[in-house]
């Protein structure tokens, strides 16, 4: 399986988590996903009254130096960590 296929598979798996990841984890995933699929941020930072959009933009901007492959790889690793954490808490 290639990197892109594994990335797409993990993007589907993360949607099936029974517990929603923390906001911090969601922002990490969002930033990596956007970097992997769109590339560097091309929009201006949202205003201070758009806190959610601003946080998402910041998360994306934080990983702008990563290549598409690096972002995909980091995203895959993060999803696997979340899936493992959920599996271990379910069996506890």
UniProtKB/TrEMBL annotation:
Keyword Cell cycle listed: no
UniProt-listed InterPro entries: Acyl-CoA-binding_prot_CS (IPR022408), Acyl-CoA-binding_protein (IPR000582), Acyl-CoA-binding_sf (IPR035984), FERM/acyl-CoA-bd_prot_sf (IPR014352)
Domain ACB: 3-88
Keyword Cytoplasm: no
Keyword list, A-Z: Lipid-binding
Source domain of life: Eukaryota
Any one of the GO BP annotations: fatty acid metabolic process
GO molecular function: fatty-acyl-CoA binding
Protein family: Belongs to the ACBP family.
Listed name of the protein: ACB domain-containing protein
Native source organism of the sequence: Brassica oleracea var. oleracea
Phylogenetic lineage: Eukaryota, Viridiplantae, Streptophyta, Embryophyta, Tracheophyta
């Amino acid at each position: 399986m290639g990197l892109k296929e594994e990335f797409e598979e993990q993007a589907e798996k993360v949607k099936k988590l029974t517990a929603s990841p923390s906001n911090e984890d969601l922002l990490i995933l969002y930033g990596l996903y956007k970097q992997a699929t769109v590339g560097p941020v091309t929009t201006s930072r949202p205003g201070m009254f758009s806190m959610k959009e601003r946080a998402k933009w910041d998360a994306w901007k934080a990983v702008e130096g990563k290549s598409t492959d690096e972002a995909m790889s980091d995203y895959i690793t993060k999803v696997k960590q979340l899936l493992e954490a959920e599996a271990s808490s379910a069996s506890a």
